[in-house]
Amino acid sequence: MFMERFRLDGRRAVVTGAGRGIGAMIAHALSEAGAEIVVVDVDPNSAADTAGKLTAAGHKAHSRQADLTRPEIVEALCADVEAAVGPVDILVNNAGIVIVKSALETEADEWLKTMDVNVNAMFYCSKAFGGRMVQRGGGAIVNLGSICGFVATVPQNTPSYIASKGAVHLMTKSLACAWADSKVRVNAVAPGYVESEMTGPFRKQFPHWYDRWIDMTPMGRLAKADEIASAVLFLASDAASYCTGSILSVDGGYTSL
Ligand code: NAD
Hints:
single chain; alpha/beta; Rossmann fold; binds nicotinamide-adenine-dinucleotide
């Protein structure tokens, strides 16, 4: 009975930024649980690549290219996906970027770009897909937050990223309260440092950062993308039927120190 609650058979899930990294792993996790997946990414090749791998593994998957920072594109994407694939039950807002620059180095366009992808695009997707879930009276949204939504991480200085993830956490809570009556659950996963294309270049360029990250993580290692995907699967599924507005830390203890 309990394992059944993690199944997503017959559900349709949109995963943004799923061309690579954590998003691609989330698409695999939700597929394995039985969902039909729409992989969305600004990069059409990577989106098609993830969807192709899912299809080759015997799952149902589609891909769409979209720059989610444009509200009119998001609305058109949503209408297209629902017409072609069917009503979307699950939205995973995973697309995100990081610009590692201190406050005094960050230019206005870099600040705005970070907010555009990490916060504004999440809102546009939530409004388009979540709005339809509200009308239908059910659904689940999972957002990718971060330990940076709780604490100012060091030694790197990333004020735009930190501010954006703080906004993600409170957008999650705000929409959760607004849509609870409509049975649309809205939660977030807050990963610590993950082995990924996002952190890889920094690890190579600034090895002392990596040492500090490990030092500040009680479990003494970075997360693997599948460990984040498992938490997303939980929140997207009926196993989390009483969770809404939750920010689930998956950080090896980082924010417990
Ligand atoms: P990544 O850079 O590997 O992947 C992000 C994906 O988002 C890419 O495929 C990219 O093409 C896509 N994307 C970027 N801008 C887009 C746009 N405008 N429209 C559509 N797609 C767009 O990143 P990742 O490491 O897999 O991170 C995924 C999420 O997890 C992000 O929200 C990130 O902030 C969060 N996160 C990552 C870490 C980490 O250590 N990697 C830690 C905490 C939180």
